[in-house]
Amino acid sequence: MQIRARMSMSADGFVTTPTGWPSLTADPAFVSGQSHGIREFLEGCEAALMGRTTFEPALTNERWPWPDLDVFVLGSHRPAGTPDHVVTDSDPLRLLEKLRAANRGGDVHLIGGPRTIGTFHALGALDTLELVVLPLLFGSGMRLTPALSPDTGLAFQRERALPGGAVEIVYSCRGSRSRLPGTPASQR
Ligand SMILES: NC(=O)c1ccc[n+]([C@@H]2O[C@H](COP(=O)([O-])OP(=O)(O)OC[C@H]3O[C@@H](n4cnc5c(N)ncnc54)[C@H](OP(=O)(O)O)[C@@H]3O)[C@@H](O)[C@H]2O)c1
């Protein structure tokens, strides 16, 4: 089982629009039906993992966003209306144990947001970080950092151009170390 985070972001580095929606929702190519590679990404996934803030809007969606995935949510309480099959926990380690216990060999899509990605990365549980950089500038919004530590070591794996001008970049987060200038060798 691999835990794979995938975030869309504007070219100026924001993972949400200025009004707090995931960046992808502002991309005309996505709105007109381009999947931005998510279908291929989900082929190997059996579960979705996310923070409560990212999860809650799904409860009022017309369509359940994860019909084919087991869903795990990190949050201090179980939001009203959460379907019975959704697993929630307030403790990230305990949630990770539940995720592993339920795993049938597929990967986990770590949806976000930044705080939850940072949490699982701090536990050493994040395997890959995939970024879909959109051809848009927002000027403001939420950044991936500092919730995900700027010291996160990223080892480049691959990239590809997506229809509509977006670019997908995949980094491994395991076995890589910070290469920020001035980082003492003992901390690398
Ligand atoms: N661009 C993209 O691809 C993308 C993808 C997903 C989300 N987003 C955006 O990201 C934004 C939300 O991001 P976010 O970072 O603020 O929130 P988040 O990670 O979705 O959820 C944060 C919540 O998760 C729980 N949590 C996280 N870390 C925890 C820890 N260490 N211990 C206990 N609980 C923990 C807490 O729930 P409690 O408050 O219940 O304690 C916390 O308030 C949204 O605006 C969403 O649109 C963007």
Automatic annotation (TrEMBL):
Gene3D superfamilies: Dihydrofolate Reductase, subunit A. This is Dihydrofolate reductase family protein. InterPro entries: DHFR-like_dom_sf (IPR024072), RibDG_C (IPR002734). Coiled coil: none annotated. Residues 3-151 form the Bacterial bifunctional deaminase-reductase C-terminal domain. It comes from Streptomyces coacervatus. It comes from the Bacteria.
